[in-house]
Amino acid sequence: MKKFIVFIFILSALSCELKAQQPRTIRGFTSISDQNKNKLEKRTFSFQPKGNIKDLVLNIQNISANLIIKGEDRSDIELEAEGLLGLPEKAKGLRAVSKYGEDNTEMGLNLEQIGNEVKLTGTNVKRSRQAVFTLIVPQDMGLSIEYLSWNSENLIVKTMKGGIEAQVSTANILLDQVTGPLSISSRGGNVEVIYSEVSKEAVTVLSSTSGDIDITIAESANVDFDINQTSGEIFTDLDIAFTYDKQEKEDVKLN
Asked: CA-CA distances (angstroms) from residue 119 to 36, 75, 124, 165, 175?
């Protein structure tokens, strides 16, 4: 495998029924109680989406935790959370709700499907701020990720064949063994892409405002790079030829 590394530049190239004897209860908590702060939990949740997997898009929003997404040859979605803060005792047995929806996974997440969109939304940032979420998903479905919290740390996506769109703020993003088209935008984190296959038809657009971009592809790959650089340096061990247009844009072609 060969590398193409760009440091600090922009690169352009993814029926509730209540019985009469049951009381109605609403309890609000402004923070997790001290006695629960050190009680970390592990939970799992499974979801079976409907429809043709290749037509589906998993839309991920409002998650502030480490996030790992693994693509496999499967039809269902499996969620695993480690390091969740425990619920206050008074909240046990009650449903957790917020403006982002109901926590229907017991992980501080809401997972639902509307048409061809499977939507995963964080509903409680405080419970999940120390957590690591692992999603095992069908590898042929598309991904659309908004990972914009300034508290978010790492986003890892592995072995996906579908298209991937992602917007991140300060988190680092690793795309490992991906094949589909990519559209990745980072404000401050590093972007690393390791291709298992590269096709000219699978157009990739990567951009970073202040982070590094690291691309690894097969030496035999037949691809073109179109690079716009505002600052920083470019390093590579690829056998490439540079051409320059009137706007001094570097057009890089892999021989």
From this structure: 29, 16, 16, 14, 21
